[in-house]
Amino acid sequence: MKRRGAVVVVLKALGVVVLLAMALIIAGRFLVQPWPERAPGVVLEPARPILREADVTPDNGYYYLRQIVQPSATSQWDKTCFSEFAACGWGKGTSTQLEAWVQSMEPAQELLRNAADCANGQVPTVDSFSVLVPYVSPFLTAARSACVMAEQAAARGDWSAAEDHYRVALRTADQISRGGTVLHVLVNLAIARVACDSLRRTALERTPPSDFFKHMDALLDELDRNLEPFAECIRYEYLCWRNSMPEFYRAPLEMFSLGDSEGKGGHAWIKIIKWPVLWLMGSTPARTLGHMAATCSQMILLADVDRFPRRSFATVVPGFERAGLLQTIGLFTDDGMGRILMTLLVPAMDNAMERYFGHRVALRGTRCVLAIRAYELKTGQVPDRLDDLVPGYLSVVPDDCFAPAASPFRFAKADGAWVVYSVGPDGVDNRAQYDWLSQKDRGAHGRECDVMFGVDEAARRCAEYDKEQAGLPAGLSCPARN
Length: 482
Hints:
Layout: H1 2-31, H2 61-65, H3 78-88, H4 96-104, H5 106-116, H6 136-155, H7 159-176, H8 182-205, H9 210-225, H10 230-255, H11 269-280, H12 285-303, H13 325-332, H14 336-379, E1 410-414, E2 417-422, H15 439-445, E3 451-454, H16 457-468
Antiparallel strand pairs: 1-2, 2-3
Helix pairs in contact: 1-13, 5-7, 6-7, 6-8, 7-8, 7-9, 8-14, 9-14, 10-12, 12-14
C-alpha cells in the first residue's frame, strides 16, 4: 500500500509539472511577437533564370572566376604584405618584393581578363550550403594585383593599360554578385572598394588624359545602374535556404553524434530525442520554411527601395531577445529553430544592406572625384561647387542614396583642400568630420561618420596606418612622405 501511495504521489506531482509547463508554454506563446504574414504580391523566385553548376560554360564569366579559388591561381602573399601595400599606394615600383608578387599573379590575371570579356556573368544558383562559395580572399588577391598593375601602368604613362586593368577588376567584381546570395554580394563590395580606392588615388596623384576620365566615369556609371538589386539578393538567399532545409534538418544526426559514420559509439540517444525536441519547439522543415518564406517576403518588400532604408530588418522579423522567462519559453515553442535561424541571419542582412548602399555611394563618390580632378587639370583650379561639373564632366551630380530624400552629394573646400561626401548611414550631414570608410573613425564615432572622398584621403590613410604600425618595412614608403 505504501508503494502504491508513493506512485500516486509521484504521478500527481508529474501531472502538476506537466500542467504547469503547459500553462507556461501557452502563456509564453501569447506574449511572443507573431511570425509575419506573407507580403501579398511579393515574388520569392529570382528574376534571372536559375543557372545550375552543370550549365556553366566558357561563355559565362563565372566559368573563369571559380578557377581563381584554386590555390594554384593566386598567391598567398596577401596574408603578409597587403597591409603595407595598401598604406603605400602600391604602384611606386620601388619594391622588389612587390614586383615579384605582381608577376606571380599572372595566372589569376588571365582568368580575370577572360571573365571580364564575357557578356554573360551570371553566377550559378546556390543549391545548398555544401556548394562551394566564392570566399573573398582569392578574389581580393587577384583584384588587388590588377589595381597594382593599373597604378604601375599609370606611373609609366600607359593609360590604355591602366584603363583595362581597372575594367577587369571592377567588371569581374560585379559578375560575382550576378545571381548570387548575399555572400557573393559582399565579395563584390570588398573588391570594388579596393578598385575604387586605387582609381581615386591614381586620379589624384597622376595627370590622366581626358579620355581616361571619360572611360572610367562611363564604367562606374554602368556598374551603378546595373547593380543587382538587394531585394534580388534576398531572393537568392531564400532559395539557398529553401533548397538546404532538408539537409539542415538532417545535419543534427551528424552534429550530435560522436560515433563514426555508421552511427557506432556514444550519444546515439540524442538521435532518438531529436525529433521530439524539435516537435516541442514547434519546428518542422515545412513549418520553418513557411515562416522563412513569409519573413523573406517582408524583407524583400523593405529592401526594394532606391535609397538606404531607415528601418532594420529586425522590425519585420520576430525577435529572440530574452525579455523575460515567459517570452523566452514562448519563443522556444513557436518554431524555435526558425527563430534561431532568422536571428543569425538578420544582423548579417542588415550589415550587408548598409554595405550595399555604401558600395553605391563609393561608385558615385569616385565619379565625383574623377570629375573634380578632370576639371582641375583642365582649368587649373578646383570647382566652387559640384554643379560646375555639369554637363562637361558629369551628366548630373549623383544622388546620395544614404540621404533620407533625393539629395546630391555634398562638397566643401578650404585652404587648398577639398572633400566630396555622402551623409552616411545615419542620414545626417555631420560636416565631414569623421570618415565612414575609416575603421578607426567608424569604431570611435559609429554612424556619425560621413562617407568622405577628398584630395587628402591617401595621406589620411597613410597617417592612420603609421599610427597602427611601429614602422614600415624596408623599401616601402607612404606617398605622403615622397
